[in-house]
Specification:
This protein has about 220 residues and is α+β, with helices and mostly antiparallel strands. The protein has 2 domains: about 100 residues, Roll (Archaeosine Trna-guanine Transglycosylase, Chain: A, domain 4), CATH 2.30.130.40; about 100 residues, no CATH class. It has 8 helices and 6 strands, in the order ββαββββααααααα. Strands 1, 2, 3, 4, 5 and 6 form a 6-stranded mixed β-sheet that branches. Helix 3 runs parallel beside helix 5. The longest helix has 18 residues. It starts with a strand and ends with a helix.
């Protein structure tokens, strides 16, 4: 699926309204199979409807069919993928693809970058970001069970501290990019950068720009 502004990051949820006939047919076939499809942002350098090179592969977790044949769905991001050659165009576009395997090696500079990012998140929240406390707490959770715990009574400050201690930088960078970056081109850049240290540095730059715009 090619969309103008949507980005699907791993381990994030993307609600979608499926109304175009081609995508309704795609969804029906998807639900009959493995429930997987990709979301690609439309390329910025072309007026034609062409997908960006890197997309997000997701699984349909919830699908509700409306009376008019449209659907409301929730897509869970699973992995970055690199799109290859298109193998068909009708009734909907299909591509060969390869999974993009993240680099897991941690360097000495990662923790300081993560601390800097958490500091920028705090400033952005103080500026009046529309991100809710519950979303912030979700960013701080390392598992769905943590987030769903009814005993979670963390303050924003506690959630920020916990966020800084997340063991997986991949989780931190993708969730914050998905939640706090408002410019589609920046989110697409974050999806395309594979190296985790380079991605953290890019996020620092983009968050700094968000803070400056809202100062």
């Amino acid at each position: 699926m090619i969309l103008p502004n949507a980005t699907l990051f791993p381990r994030t949820m993307l609600p979608l309204y499926i109304f175009e006939p081609r995508y309704r047919r795609m969804l029906v076939r998807t639900l009959e199979g493995d429930r997987l499809f990709a979301v690609a942002m439309k390329r910025f350098d072309c007026s034609r409807e062409l997908p960006s090179r890197v997309a997000g592969l997701g699984m349909v977790r919830v699908a509700v069919r409306n009376d008019d044949g449209t659907y409301h769905i929730v897509l869970q991001g699973l992995s970055r993928i690199e799109l290859g050659k298109a193998v068909s165009y009708r009734p909907f576009r299909r591509h060969r693809f390869e999974l993009i395997v993240p680099e897991s090696e941690e360097t000495p500079g990662l923790r300081s970058l993560m601390q800097r990012i958490v500091g920028l998140v705090k400033i952005r929240l103080q500026q009046g970001s529309e991100v809710s406390v519950e979303i912030l707490k979700g960013l701080a959770c390392e598992s769905a069970s943590d987030f769903e715990s009814p005993e979670s009574t963390e303050s924003i400050e506690e959630a920020l501290v916990k966020m800084a201690g997340i063991a997986d930088p991949e989780q931190l960078v993708d969730l914050i990019a998905c939640t706090l970056l408002t410019i589609p081109r920046e989110r697409q850049t974050m999806l395309e950068v594979v190296g985790i240290e380079a991605r953290l540095n890019a996020l620092v730059g983009f968050l700094s720009a968000e803070v400056a715009r809202n100062a």
